[in-house]
Amino acid sequence: MERKFLRWSLILSAIMVLTYQQVNAQGCSDAGFCTMGAMKPDQSFNKKVKLKLRTIEVSYYHGASTLSPLINVVNLDASFSITNNLGFQIKLPYQWVNGNFDNTSGMGDISLSATQRISGNENYDISATLGMKIPSNDGDLKDSGSKFPEAKGLSLPMYYQTSLGSYDVVAGASYISSKWLFATGIQAALTTNSNNFWPGEWVGIYPDESYVRDYDVATNLKRGTDVMIRVERNFRFSNYSFNIGLLPIYRITKDQIEDRDTGEYMKLDDTTGLALTLLSSFSYHFDVTNSIKVSFGKKFMDRKVNPDGLTRQHVIIVAYGFRF
């Protein structure tokens, strides 16, 4: 039975990876909150085996944007149990971007969260999370001039930024059993970034004007508030597990940018709405201490306008986990 399920799981995984490259996706790991605390996918649940109190996960993320930039992230995700019911998580990403305008690299935004188990028994757990994201920079990295010397010092679009440039607050809750995970969360930007990309400055420097104007302006962007729901079905076996789920993220308020002429903030049309993704992952557990995981997804719906630069054509994540 397990061998048959494993075979079909691998076939399904391969099909989804191949088809995924044709679909637009927003990398939630960039925005942050859907992998924090109680909202995190593929959470462990086994009341018969006492889990280790500390977890270190190192992951590699690759995403291709809808324009030219390729986004790569190595992320260190550390979780520590303070008590049997209270845990703390920190995520430290390092990001590098390769694109037609320039190449950038640097620390990504730092995520901090605390998760409290508020109810549960042998069959389920209910937990709540409160956290924040700390920007690693102001979201306004400048062009180095390595590809176009005339562009040196010009602000780069958000796709090239290693930080969203804002302080964010995050809250959420989850219900988890051996088979199911239901989670919801909210992420709100408390501050603006300092991005000053302006297409007009690049026209005449980059040879394709239409390509330049495909980048959305994000002048001192204040992102709208996101609400997420995660529904995930898990299939757990002795040495491996597989899950499939849906992740709808709804931006409930419009993004705002500063008008360059008046200095006043204006709300951007078509920045609210639903982004819906089908997600799946496969994990292999060498023992109670070591595991590897491959995750991917397929986007069915997205917002029309994304000045934050989070839209992706495909996203694949490979992770190694260590419990101690």
UniProtKB/TrEMBL annotation:
Q: What is this protein called?
A: MetA-pathway of phenol degradation
Keywords, A to Z, come to: Signal
Q: Where is the signal peptide?
A: 1-25
